[in-house]
Design brief:
Elements (H helix, E strand, L loop, with lengths): L1 H15 L14 H12 L16 H19 L1 H4 L5 H13 L1
Length: 101
Amino acid sequence: MKNSARLLIFAGLFLAGPMLTFGQAASWSGVDETVIEKFAEKAGRPAREPFINTGRGDLFLFLFLLAGAVGGFAAGYWFRILFPPRRKDDVSAAHHDREGS
């Protein structure tokens, strides 16, 4: 039990290690800044203020991901209501109709 706990702690620290910045602020630019703005400038269309200003980075994509996760959880939670299981009577009747024809 102790060995598995130590292994789990070690694996957690090993996997979380690259995420630790130790006081350094990560300044990653979003997809809009790194890719789309370059192509827009080459085409003669300079950058402008966005219609929906979500602050910085890819916050809008994160919100889209969060909405998908909530929708997926809801669909999974209510799966039997959305797709009810067949009753045994319906299955046997369908099987009987195929053999009788």
